[in-house]
Amino acid sequence: MPVYIARKLAFFLLAVLVASIAIFLLIRGAGGNVAAVILGKDATAEAINALAQQYGLDRPLFVQYFDWIGNLLQGDLGRSFRTNEPVTDLVVSRLSISIPLCVSGLILGLVIAIPAGTYSALNSDKPLGAVIALLSQVGIAVPVFWAGILLSLLFGVRLGWLPTGGWTNWDVSLWGAVRSLVLPVISLGLILGASLTRYVRSAVLDVMNQDYVRTARATGMTRMQALLQVGLRNAALPIATVVGLQIAELIGGTVIIETVFSLPGLSRMILANVAAREVIVVQSTVMLIIIFVMFINLIVDLLYGVLDPRVRLAR
Amino acid sequence: MTIAPTATPAKPRRRRRRNLTLTIGIVVTAAFMAMALASFFYLPHNPNVPRIPDRLLPAGSPGYLLGTDALGRDIFSQLMVGARTSLTVGAGGALISLVIGTIAGLSAAAFGRVADETISRGADIMLSIPGMVTALVLAATIGSGALTTILALSAFFTPSFTRVIRSAALSVMQEDFITAARLYDRPTWFILLRHVLPNVAGVMIVQFTLYFAAGILTEAGLSYLGVGVTRPSISWGMMLNEAQQQVGISSPLAMWPGLAIVIVVLGLNLLGDGLRDVLDPKLARRA
Amino acid sequence: MTTPPAIEVKNLTVGYEDLNAVRGVSFTLPAGGRMGLVGESGSGKSMTALALMGLLPAGWQAHGEVLHDGVNLVSQSDRVLSSRRGRTISMVFQDPMSSLNPVRRVGDQIADVIHRHNGVGRREAMRQAVDLMVQMNLPRPEQLARSYPHQISGGQKQRIMIAMALACYPQLIIADEPTTALDVTVQKQVLRLLNAATRERNSALLMITHDLPVIAAMCDTVAVMYAGRIVEYGPVQDVFRNPRHHYTRGLLDSQPTMDNIALDGSSRLVSIPGMVPPLQRLPSGCAFNPRCPAATEKCRTEMPELAPNGAACWHPVGAVQVVEA
């Protein structure tokens, strides 16, 4: 296990390094002259040069990279060109929206997918099993923003139970904040749940056909005990892998759903800065998101190690 | 439909469901392609020219099959051009990923441990960069548009393709006929082209179909955010965004593009599943 | 005083939709008895075993009677059956590699069975499990008990499986080709262990295999299955010395021995012509008739029942042969 942890940790660091170089080069390389991009088409050459000098954009690229990544590691994400606000300050308040949204969406997705997928795997010949399989197939085809629109149409406009958008901050009203998050979380969770249901279904189908489940029943477990004690425990392995892979998708969904419900989360901030061509802000916040995804993947890998003795005890 | 009498009639019900899946998939996909291709030759109205007197007409109004939007632009014409965008961007992104992913996947499978480790770890790293994020970065630097969206989709899908092709190729490489070809001193590239590629073609076709669908969904999402395609190109995602901004979500305008996306993506997914049953029986059970 | 038989099977039929893999099988295995069940793959022997255990794959159904310990197993619920499985009737499967739970220590897997059925505490169950492992001739049992399946050899895994099957002193053990997946050198050891351990516990043994010498060495009676039916049944010595059914005869003739194994063309190793027919295209009459050297018109139209001589055949070996023109 120590070797396994060390290997995963090393890979995590390598991945962060590679991704940071890629993002840096993509933005600086593809974007050309950053100062020109920021100032727009009508800027004079003098103004561009002045801005470049002021922010050290005229230095060699690798110096700028180490400058950026060094500051990033110390928690300094740089400053906005226009407002001179530190990016860290911009980010922190918005994380209090994005992280609860994203994590609750994931949990809801799992809460839907594990029972639904398991049931439809074991009862594919019954009507409800077929209905679940059909709903999951349809759910995969529904774009998350349309799900959000339909839900807010039903619960917001028609029934008036929940706000169709907007945000009440946590310190203003806890209840208000929760209410503003309900529909976004359900939209995210339903759509994620639909695709996870498929994976859970195939993982459970696969596991329940294994010889060791038959052995469990041959030594006295009922079908239900064999499912709960042996089947799901083994199906957890492929499901953990898939959840790790879905995190990147989940982030995309979060970005979109924040727009649908006008939540001032991290992604709204990025979008606004994309539009304003605030290159440094985009670069740093994007890197932050990537580190977050990679970190979750690291956790999933470590969890996998705990769940699977073949990995845990491998040398 | 004829089924040869010698075929095993063990599970007729499943067989019928399989055929149904494939049939629906083919029909929907064909209709979608026809709509996209027709948009090059004929549109009921120019989808970008506002006609204020005709604004917000309901569906079935004379001359406007599905009515008009807040600026009086014909919805059906916009849907047709939207289909074209979905087709080019979705298929374009899937195709680029298919080509790069196949080359990378085959190389990982055939050129030894170092190549395999490099390519596989590289793919793992790329997989943990959200596609949405790549798209945002590209939009911030080179500007949004159809080409940017295709690039973002390719960056997003290539690592998954690479992994699938690699594992399919690895299982082919273990077959005896590959060993035989090796014994005949065939060069590796020859073995890959002549023996491995034809045997992973089924996987490639199935994956292409599924990522085509995923590409349409992602493109719609990006255009909904305003960082995908821009007018005069039209995207179903963009139409939804405009409907939400201009007339609110209770308008039927927020229904048509959503329905179009669901139907087309569902059709392509069904086609992919159906093709998998036919072309790739080993993978079929994992669906 | 008569002890009730370990199992009594009456007219067992096992099928999927309208296809029957087992078509009316009957036999009785007395308490402590040992019976071999032979046949080619596809003859229905494994389905018979799974039907006795109540572990048929989804969609398959059993009809008929399986009397065991005073109940008819065919008509019992999963809950009732599960309270018997591993306790009064248990099974050793073909492939030990995939038959153990990969994420649970092997000692725990044995202890689970004891804990479940004997109502003893976890610690006592574990002690008994290690005892059983000692009896299974497993090396360093204390340490091995803490291993996961992937850490031990195939032969060791099968010994663990046998230990799980024997843990509660069942009245009947079904062993479905328990050694086919093992190395030849290990096979004999595992069989010897299974033989000795079942005899010690006076458990009846139903040994499913296509390995005739194994049956000869371990069993008292033998049933030969073909296309879902028992075509010959009797004491091992009688059946193997004087087979009455042409299929049994063919099976015996196709066993390689030291003097027929020459492969230089002079080989006298014969094989039965043709193949086992698929379920959906069973011939009418005796299912063996297309491959049988003695088949007549009667064989093609009428299905023979198991006769007092032990064979289900219209023209048993040794009787006057009817020669067709």
UniProtKB/TrEMBL annotation, chain A:
GO molecular function annotations of the record: dipeptide transmembrane transporter activity
Pfam hit, one: BPD_transp_1
CDD domains: TM_PBP2
Localization in the cell: Cell membrane
Keyword Membrane: yes
Record's keyword terms, sorted: Cell membrane, Membrane, Transmembrane, Transmembrane helix, Transport
Domain ABC transmembrane type-1 per the UniProt entry, residue ranges: 95-300
Topological type in the membrane: Multi-pass membrane protein
InterPro entries noted in UniProt: BPD_transp_1_N, MetI-like, MetI-like_sf
Transmembrane domains' residue ranges: 95-116, 128-161, 181-200, 235-261, 281-307
One GO CC term, this protein: plasma membrane
Family: Belongs to the binding-protein-dependent transport system permease family.
Name of the molecule in the record: ABC transporter permease
Organism, scientific name: Devosia riboflavina
TrEMBL record, chain C:
Localization of this protein: Cell inner membrane
InterPro entries: AAA+_ATPase, ABC_Ni/Peptide_Import, ABC_transporter-like_ATP-bd, ABC_transporter-like_CS, Oligopep_ABC_C, P-loop_NTPase
GO BP, sorted A to Z: peptide transport; transmembrane transport
Topological category with respect to the lipid bilayer: Peripheral membrane protein
Presence of the UniProt keyword rRNA-binding in the record: no
Chief place where the protein resides: membrane
Ranges of residues in domain ABC transporter: 7-252
A Pfam entry, by short name: ABC_tran
GO molecular function (one): ATP hydrolysis activity
Cellular component, GO, one term: plasma membrane
Keyword tags: ATP-binding, Cell membrane, Membrane, Nucleotide-binding, Transport
Domain of life: Bacteria
Similarity comment text for this entry: Belongs to the ABC transporter superfamily.
Protein name: ABC transporter
Source organism of this protein record: Devosia riboflavina
